[in-house]
Amino acid sequence: MSPTRKIQITFDCAEPERVARFWCEVLGYVVPPPPEGFADWADYERTQPPERQGAGFVCQDPSGVGPRLYFQRVPEGKVVKNRVHLDVRVGTGLVGEERLAALEAECARLVALGAARERVLLADEYNESCIVMRDVEGNEFCLD
Questions:
Q1: Spatial strand order in the sheet of 140-143
Q2: Cβ-based neighbour number of residue 24 at 10 Å
Q3: Separation in Å, CA 45 to CA 12, 35, 54
Q4: Is 126 left (phi over 0), alpha (psi -120 to 50) or beta?
Q5: 53-57, long-range: CB within 8 Å, 24+ apart, which pairs?
Q6: Could you tell me if 144 and 130 are in contact, meaning their C-beta atoms sit under 8 angstroms apart?
Q7: Is-contact 69 20, C-beta < 8 A?
Q8: Where are the domains of the chain?
Q9: How confident is the model over 80-118, as pLDDT tens digits?
Q10: For the chain, where are the E strands, in sequence order?
């Protein structure tokens, strides 16, 4: 059996720090400390060549269990639907109206952070309800 590997999920975006800080709030993640010798990330950024300043930003699970998220600046904007998306699991174990209430409460919190609500997918014979959303740069994700 092969060993379990840690993974990093990388997002292409226009404003890495803005998107990373949004996902910190969504997931309860934190920004890691700056490299040794720097008071903060802004201090570190000033040492980079102009074209690298603001080019990337990281957030991570404070417990070290969840994947690290890396946000990298790219020149092109988002054009099509994501091929991979995150499911933010807020309704696990809940069904019916109780599940929808939990999803709606989290949806309201995330909209206040800058997310956009797309649509509700109601439960059917195979799946429980979920809410399709977009982050601050339009990347799709689901409240599940």
A1: 86-88, 140-143, 130-134, 116-121
A2: 19
A3: 19, 11, 7
A4: alpha
A5: 54/15, 54/16, 54/17, 55/16, 56/16, 57/16, 57/17, 57/19, 57/20, 57/21, 57/31
A6: yes
A7: yes
A8: 8-73, 86-143
A9: 888 788 999 999 999 999 999 999 999 999 999 999 999
A10: 8-13, 56-59, 68-73, 86-88, 116-121, 130-134, 140-143
